Amino acid sequence: MKKIVLRNGVEMPAIIMGTSICDRKGSRKRLLNKMADVVSFAVQNGIVGFDTSRDYSNEANLGKVFGGLIRSGSIKREDIFITTKVGNGQQREKNMFQQIDISLKALKLDYIDLWLLHWPLPDYYIDNWKQVCDVYKSGKVRAIGIANTRERHIKEIEKITPDLLPHVVQIEYHPFRTVPAMRAICDEKKIQIEAYSANCVMLPFVRENDVLNRLADKYSKTITQIMMRWHIQQGTIPIFSSLNQKHILENIDVFDFTIEDDDMKLLFALNCDYKFHPESLNCPGY
Ligand SMILES: NC(=O)c1ccc[n+]([C@@H]2O[C@H](COP(=O)([O-])OP(=O)(O)OC[C@H]3O[C@@H](n4cnc5c(N)ncnc54)[C@H](OP(=O)(O)O)[C@@H]3O)[C@@H](O)[C@H]2O)c1
Predict the structure, then answer these.
(1) Which residues are marked as active site?
(2) Quick check: 28 pLDDT over 70?
(3) Which of 39, 196, 282 is the best mutation target for the ligand 1 pocket, counting ligand atoms within 8 Å of the beta carbon and taking the most?
């Protein structure tokens, strides 16, 4: 898998697979089996970056799966890149050193590759960010960041820790939401954008979009491959999720074609600031 080098020199896979979908429904045992199937299949097929969160309640399941893959020699710890996040409930406890230890134990890991605050929770995120920086300096995590930020949050963080800005911000970013002001400040400060809901959740309006379908025909690719390639060419790191093996393979098979500049512009022109995950629901007072 191609790598992107973060500001601190850490290499991050150019495509990440999300795991929130694995815990949607079903019994604990069935979920563990599903998780094992999906993650093992992904690893066997060259996916090495995975995204979770304390709020997905699946760190322990993931820990079992990765532990098994490492013990069986299918992968080495250093070859995979694991992201997890501190949820809002844990942010309210204001004890980031305890929170990282809980995640490390559940995931059965000695270190986390990327550790994020899940939301810039008002009244909490600044003080917690200072602690996240201390956890980073302790070596328990290789890179740090914050999800769901706007430019105002980056400016607030810069006032507090001007020498240690997030290495990564994880935000909803796809052709229908390109947040140009956020993009500009991240480019200026060398903050890597990681794009969640990279395929805009494949909602019906996305599947039916004329531009995406025309470009899919033109390049003999699917519309998800067009969106994934659009991310790769502009240097954002897409996170997709899928429980379907055909879709998983399709979403990483995007390194054998190039979208022409004029077509990239057509894709950027789809921006309508569409947001699938409203901040008001997930982060009171945002
Ligand atoms: N930081 C945050 O607040 C936050 C918020 C949301 C998400 N995330 C992260 O981002 C990850 C991905 O987000 P998401 O699930 O919202 O976005 P997504 O990947 O854009 O959408 C997932 C949906 O797309 C479908 N899909 C995937 N590949 C496809 C393909 N090739 N063809 C047709 N359908 C396809 C999947 O169905 P199938 O299973 O049928 O393929 C699933 O229904 C999450 O798992 C999580 O790790 C983070």
Answers:
(1) 56
(2) no
(3) 196
